[in-house]
Structure prediction request, 136 residues.
Amino acid sequence: MSENRIKLAPETVAYADAETHTLVVEFAIPGAPTDTIDVKILGDSIHLTAPARDVEYVSALALAWPVKPEKAEAVYEHGLLRIEVPFKDPMEDAVKVAIKTAGAETKPTVITAKADPPAVARGSSKPLAAEPALAP
Prediction:
């Protein structure tokens, strides 16, 4: 076998099987020996390399919906690799958040219309710079 193989993307079909709630992916990789096929599945992607004669099939698929890679099953027959992997329930890893009740109730503050005298600096009878002076 040649070390300088041409890299090719295999013919690929991927679809959701609504009846079994699984993703089905089929790769056409004729001539690839079973023991050289390398498939890796993550929760959001599938990666394939498969050397065959003078070519090396390579593929990477990004998945639109998460799957359970540990439950994947693959069958290779007559040059067709068929992978079935169940979809992951989007709420499977959800964490329930405890809701606490609020402590003491707060009362609204009432604002009156009377004007307070301007603030003065400690130890001084002069108003602060931002305050207007009061008439004596």
The two ends are 106 Å apart (CA to CA). The chain has no helices and eight strands. The beta strands are 6-8, 11-17, 22-28, 38-41, 45-52, 55-62, 73-77, 80-86. The CA atoms of residues 20 and 86 lie 8 Å apart.
